[in-house]
Amino acid sequence: MTAVVPTLDSNGWLRGIAEKADALLAYFLISDYSQSFLHQGQVRSLPYLIQQYPRNHIELSNEAQRSVEMLLESYFDSVDVHVTIENPDETLGFTEAHVDLRFNVTVRQDGRMYSLGRLINVVNNKIAKVTNITRT
Predict the structure, then answer these.
(1) pLDDT greater than 70 at residue 136
(2) pTM higher than 0.90 for the full model?
């Protein structure tokens, strides 16, 4: 049986590959690491990773990739996640105050494949902007 993703809105249980992948990645972007007492230490959370690795962008991207993989593996037959550091404006440079993370995700379920991407702009250790991107 294919795993479903629960929601707390009128959508109820998500079963479609695209809906599940989009929702799970969104949950990762907004979840609070300490939001659950029952599942303490098991909540995957980008804000928590940003807090843990404020000056180490390489480790931040590695841990974000590992966390998204672990989250998605429970819901799909296979997952392929790549998180890279982007620098759209060379004049900004890599600073503590600014980093862009590019998420490229491909999931497979029941012989079907779905790809999605997000560019996460982190400013002053907070998520400032999330942009949907198309993989090329």
Answers:
(1) no
(2) no
Tell me how far CA of residue 4 lies from CA of 31, 52, 123, in angstroms.
Answer: 18, 30, 34
The stretch 19-42 carries a mean pLDDT of 75
Strand partners, 82: 104
Name the residue type at position 75: Y
Cα separations in angstroms, 114 against 5, 33, 98: 16, 27, 30
User: What SS3 class is residue 86?
Assistant: strand
| Residue indicated by tokens 């799970």 | 24
What is the band of 7 on the pLDDT scale with cuts at 50, 70, 90? confident
CA neighbours within 13 Å on the CB side: how many for 10?
A: 0
